[in-house]
Design a protein that fits this description.
One of its GO terms (cellular component) is plasma membrane. With 113 residues, this protein is mainly alpha-helical. It is built from 4 helices and no strands.
Length: 113
């Protein structure tokens, strides 16, 4: 079965944003002293993340999760830069590129019949 990768990457990007937002809500409460109320939208965001990931065009959950991992790593470094104001260094960037290459292999690699 032939698959197009772009819709999956967009879906993974949305899932990553939902997951990072949800996790950051808990980080803000536990580590930054924000109100416990921060966790409420965090829970909703994590539920959205889980639902979005089930929409991935994959025959197996493990493969979808593995490919998503590379996208999540790159998105986390973007969050680091854009939201937290800390610019990723060259090692962060190199690591993210390696992970994205791995995700691409998992998503687009030829599969046996």
């Amino acid at each position: 079965m032939e698959r197009t990768v772009w819709p999956t990457l967009v879906l993974y990007g949305a899932a990553a944003l939902a997951e990072i937002t949800g996790c950051f809500a808990f980080w803000a409460w536990a580590r930054l002293g924000r109100s416990l109320w921060w966790t409420m939208p965090g829970v909703a965001s994590l539920c959205l993340f889980a639902w979005l990931l089930t929409r991935a065009d994959a025959d197996f959950a493990g493969r979808a999760y593995a490919a998503y991992g590379g996208v999540y790593i790159a998105a986390s470094l973007l969050w680091l830069w854009l939201v937290e104001g800390a610019r990723p260094d060259r090692w962060d960037t190199a690591g993210a590129l390696v992970c994205l290459a791995g995700a691409a292999l998992i998503l687009a690699g030829p599969r046996g019949s």
